[in-house]
Amino acid sequence: MIRFTLMISAFFLFLLNINCQTIKSPDEFLGYELGSQFTFHHRAVEYFRYIASVSPLADYREYGKTYEGRQLGVCIVSSEENLAHLEEYRKNNLIRTGLLEGEFTGKQIPFIWLAYNVHGNESAGMETAMKTLYTLVTKSYPGSDEWLKSCIIIIDPCQNPDGRDLYANRYRNSQNLIQNTDGRTWEHNQGWPGARSNHYLFDLNRDWTWQTQAESSQRLALYNQFMPQVHADFHEMGAESSFFFPPGAEPWHEVITPWQHEFHRLMGKGNAQLFDEKARLYFTKENFDLFCPSFGDTWPLFNGAAGFTYEQGGGGYAGLSLKLESGDTLTLKKRIDGHFTATMATLKVAYDNRVKLLEEFNRFFAENLNKPSFRYKSIIIKGSNDRDALEDLFNLLTKNQIRYSYAGNTGKKYKGFDYLANAEGEVTVEKGDFLISAYQPQSKFMQVLFEPDSKASDSLSYDLTAWALPYAYNIKAFAVEDQIKGLPEKIEMKAVMNQPATDKPYSYVVDYTGFNTLKFISALAGKNIRARYSLKPFTAGGKNYNRGSFIIARGDNSNSANKIDVIVAELANKYQVGLNKTSTGFVEKGKDFGSEYSSLVRKSNIAILCGDGISSGPAGELWYLFERELEYPVSLINVANRENLDLSGFDVLLLPSGNYSKVRDTIVDFAKKGGRVVAFENAIQVFATEKSTSLYKAIETRTEEQKAAEKKIKSDDTSLLKKFGDEDRHLLSERSAASIYKVMVDTTNPFGFGLGSEWFVMKRTQAYPFLPNGSNIGYILESKPVAGFAGYKYQKQIKNTLVIGSERTGSGEVIYITEDPYFRAFWKSGRALIWNAVFR
Predict the structure, then answer these.
(1) Rounded-to-integer distance, Cα 803 and Cα 786, Å
(2) How far apart are CA 91 and CA 87, in angstroms?
(3) Residue 492: CB partners within 8 Å, gap ≥ 6?
(4) Which end of the chain is more exposed for a tag (fewer CB within 10 A), N or C?
């Protein structure tokens, strides 16, 4: 009997060995040892496709393309039996969440999602993904056979292929034949922009909720088809750091459940066991908190999963090998081993807790649907808001599977929190108002996005401390404690259909109704159709129009007289903009169309400065806004060749936040000779140091006032005795952790059109004083933020300060915008401000 058992065991070992031999390892497939070179993305895709073609345990699925055309895809790995019933498991999982209707068949096993290389230059990730895939399909890690029988594992090898290949190409171009561990060499110091980001220079790990980028929206569309119980996101950090694994640091968002807390602890212990066996250094509960919903750990947590961030010391600076301060050498192979060890720990701990994972996952969604924890059971979005803002909001909610409907109980009045007033108020439900109910599968995530002020257990947060959507979209909304029922009828925005005029009207008039109006006017400029905007309210054809309304007059477009009606109607239909015809330029009230109060929209040739010293993220936001949202051409001008920087032919110069000291004189000269400069955030320093500007004089005056009021500190003042360990908290008192402030707006100024009398901004930078000469268009009058954290010293500085201003300089103009009004491309209400600054 013993002999027979040994023969059977030997036979299965033989089969396993044959299987391993018939499937090529990454080394065999690539032709070099994993970790000895940076693999190009297409080769990793080929390897994943190869594995799926030769192994019955893997299925490859392409889920999209990047902006540069690279393929996005995953391998789904499990036992043959599980893969044969994959669709049943997938649907059952969604049925248990309540996000899919259907009959549960009783079969449910955990889905585990492993995600690598969301930052292009955190390059150990994709290499690790190939090693992980090979290990699983060959069942060559202890316990992996059982994992595949009881779990379905989804591996995304590279979430950011464009950034990954930018890094790999640069490194191969600059690396030495003999590996160089000196951190000063070219291969360890790549140029602008860093390869961390995607094509449009966005940090994809801060785009999970907002899904502004193609990579994010396509990936999460696939994620939503499975709704995994575990999501692990593998990153790299500074080369001198060791390894971070869970539990995460404080603050944790309050919606994170006790089980999610406990599973973080269990995952930490599981990782520690494997890292201890290898005598590898690590740390937990530091730096990487679980509060802001933008990340690859928090977004899954708010979607019912156990979300984890892993951070291996290394990053783009580390290259293939780097000598550390300790004298040790950090190699790519060591970094791969770190992520591989954490991957195996993740799978083992998830497998060991698979029953509890499913129980708690199902409970998460059941409680969301039946016993929501959110204080406010109903969010009322007024139907009178800008149509375009509503459509943008609903698009975001749909991507995040948050349900909305028309509001019931029409005519009933409720007490509730008025977001825009930042105070308790009352709301009467009217026909056409919208409801977001807390009684839904995504209740906790809905709470995260709509709570007026997110509560953090610790103000020392890694990223944002506020993000409530009504402020980002600047929409009228109320949070109500009562449960309001929704109406079953389908929400459909009534389509706008304009017919080309045959009677050759004197003009077309368009009231500003949202961002699509601005897209329409920009598109007309692209067709060489001129438009005007009114500086005063007016009445024409019995209809009242606000300041900023647009007039497309036949008299301004004599060169297009034969085709103007068709072009205007086609573009208006494309952007869903209503046209009103007039037979005269003589208005009933206000200023006539030929008045000096009716200004031509500028057809601008726009340059965005970029390059060393300039923040790539804000530069990418502007690039994305004009190319992808406005569909209007822009030129990116790299300041690296400053001696030959030629700005002739441009009308508008956009300065993203950054240091422009090397090209300061060129920029100032551009403005003085008639150009328009729009300076954002720290770029304002270009003109803050120019003595001829009103801004310089304002800062000089404020500095003198601060010196006069400054309290003289004596040498024996005990307030100087600050503990070294509290240094970060002392610094925190002087900063705003991306808190939200209310901005008062001069609605008579063209640059403020479309913002409303009150607007909201994500405040992060220093305070600027009012301009003694020029226009103070947007300003903060209160010290406290509407939401989020701002230190007490920062609050003292921010009251009565400038957010939007403009002044003439020479024959040109400078517009100051002290914050990022289009923050990470999700702060949609700021688009109108940027458009105004460029085209009005």
Answers:
(1) 16
(2) 6
(3) none
(4) N
Neighbours of 748 (CB within 10 A): 12
Low-confidence winner among 131-140, 203-212, 462-471 (lowest mean pLDDT): 462-471
Enumerate residues 6+ apart whose C-beta is below 8 A from 649.
605
b/e per residue 162-190 (b: at least 16 CB within 10 A): bbbbbbbebbeeebeeeebbebeeebbeb
In sequence order, what DSSP letters do the residues of 176-190 get, joined into one string?
A: -SS----TTSGGGS-
Task: Give percent of the chain with pLDDT exceeding 90.
Answer: 89
Domain annotation for the chain: domains and CATH numbers: 19-368 (3.40.630.10), 374-487 (no CATH), 507-600 (no CATH), 606-703+732-839 (3.40.50.880)
* Cis preceding linkage at 251, omega within 30: yes
The three state secondary structure string of 560-594 is HCCCHHHHHHHHHHHCCCCCEEECCCCCCECCCCC
How far is CA 302 from each of CA 230, 307, 328, 532, rounded to the nearest angstrom? 12, 9, 40, 47
Cα 440 from Cα 436, distance rounded (Å): 9
Q: Which pLDDT does position 21 carry in this prediction?
A: 55
Residue 117 gets the label, from left (phi > 0), alpha (psi -120 to 50) or beta, of left
* DSSP conformation letters of 322-341: EE-TTS-EEEHHHHHHHHHH
Q: What is the DSSP string of 49-88?
A: HHHHHH-TTEEEEEEEE-TT--EEEEEEE--HHHHHTHHH
Distance CA 657, CA 679 (A): 8
Res 724 pLDDT > 80:
no
pLDDT at 458 over 70: no
Q: How many CA atoms lie within 13 A of 791 on its CB side?
A: 18
| pLDDT tens-place string over residues 389-448 | 999 999 999 999 999 999 999 999 999 999 999 999 999 999 999 999 999 999 999 999
Segment 614-633 mean pLDDT: 98
What is the residue type of 256? I
For 556, which DSSP code? G
* Tens-digit pLDDT profile for residues 171-185: 999 999 998 999 999
Q: Give the whole-angstrom CA distance, residue 662 versus residue 613.
A: 9
Structure tokens that stand for 533 in this block = 């905007």
pTM higher than 0.90 for the full model? yes
Neighbours of 72 (CB within 10 A): 23
Place of tokens 């396993």: 16
Other CB atoms within 10 A of residue 424 CB:
11
SS3 155: strand
Please state whether the peptide bond connecting residue 193 to the residue before it is cis, i.e. omega within 30 degrees of 0: yes
Sheet of strand 434-437: strand arrangement: 423-428, 413-418, 477-480, 378-381, 434-437, 405-407, 486-487
Q: What is the pLDDT of residues 292-306, one digit of tens each?
A: 999 999 999 999 999
| CB within 8 Å of 138: residues ≥ 6 apart | 16, 19, 20, 23
**What SS3 state is found at 238?**
coil
**Continuous H helices in 481-629:** 515-526, 564-574, 616-624
Residue pair 609/637 in contact (Cβ under 8 Å)? The answer is yes
Rounded Cα gap, residues 133 and 116, in angstroms: 12
Average pLDDT, the chain: 94
Give the count of beta carbons closer than 10 Å to the beta carbon of residue 90: 17
Task: Spell out where 102-248 has E strands.
Answer: 111-116, 152-156, 230-237, 243-244
